[in-house]
Amino acid sequence: MQCDFDTIGTQAVAADIEAALVIHDLLRALGFEAFTIRLNSRQSCSGLLDQLGLADKGAAGTGCSG
Asked: Tens-digit pLDDT profile for the chain (66 aa)?
């Protein structure tokens, strides 16, 4: 299954990260235990790594792709 949407009104990477976290929480609340969320924005992925304190490890091997 695939879902696509856009954030309007902000250029902040945090908005994309927040959307991914909402999707995660929603799928868990619906009872899904295993799923993959894929981001196709290197900027969003870098922001997520930064929020998780993993930015210094780089995107290599993390599933981040541009």
From this structure: 676 777 888 878 788 788 888 889 999 999 999 998 887 777 777 777 888 888 776 545 555 644
Joined tokens for residue 24: 């995660």
Length of the chain: 66
Give the pTM: 0.54
16-52 as b/e, with b when 16 or more CB fall inside 10 Å? bbebbeeeeeeeeeeeeeeeeeebeeeebbbbbbeee
What is the rounded end-to-end Cα distance, in angstroms, of the chain? 21
How far is it, in rounded angstroms, from Cα 6 to Cα 21?
15
> Alpha-carbon distance 51 to 62, whole Å?
14
